[in-house]
Specification:
Radius of gyration: 19 Å
Strand order of the largest sheet: 4-3-7-1-2-6-5
CATH class of the largest domain: Mainly Beta
CATH superfamily of the largest domain: RimM
CATH architecture of the largest domain: Beta Barrel
Distance between the termini: 35 Å
Strand content: over 45%
Length: 166
């Protein structure tokens, strides 16, 4: 996508029934929040799809998308990512950040040592981790206050209390 940033919210995991419904694995919290976003960009070709109907079902979500009227059409969508554009997301609350907004920011220690830029993030279950690529790759916990001291979008940098030798 060459326009606005694309944010993956989940994927289509299977078909549900015979009337074009799909099983959705949602990465949103709570998981049913994925149904509030419209339209979805489905798959690498980013086909625009609107959710006609959707609901929680067991530990997942099921949805029927426009243009998907039967099981065969639904089966063509299995395995495809569900994304939206960054501007479809609500504003982040104070001291909360969308990962996509942190990607590309410079990471500098509180002593002024440049560690590189945020390549991506991942979650360990305990905390999120910044993958910082510079002269080498570093894994820096995104622990607000303890490690991460400041996120400055104007200066496009994150200040951390981190030993550059780690």
């Amino acid at each position: 996508m060459t326009g606005p940033k694309r944010v993956v919210l989940g994927r289509i995991a299977g078909v549900y029934g015979v009337k074009g419904w799909v099983k959705v694995v949602s990465d949103t919290d709570p998981r049913e929040s994925i149904l509030r976003y419209a339209p979805w960009l489905v798959g690498p070709e980013e086909t625009i799809r609107r959710v006609v109907e959707g609901r929680c079902h067991g530990k997942g979500i099921v949805a029927r998308l426009d243009g998907c009227e039967d099981r065969e059409q639904a089966a063509l969508l299995v395995g495809r990512e569900i994304a939206v554009t960054r501007d479809q997301l609500p504003p982040a609350r104070a001291e909360e950040f969308y990962w996509i907004d942190l990607e590309g920011l410079a990471v500098v220690t509180d002593q002024g040592v440049d560690l590189g830029c945020v390549h991506h993030l991942f979650s360990t279950g305990v905390n999120d981790v910044l993958v910082v690529r510079g002269e080498r790759e570093r894994l820096v916990p995104f622990a607000w206050g303890d490690v991460v001291k400041d996120v400055d979008f104007t200066r496009r940098r994150i200040e951390v209390d981190w030993d550059p030798e780690f």
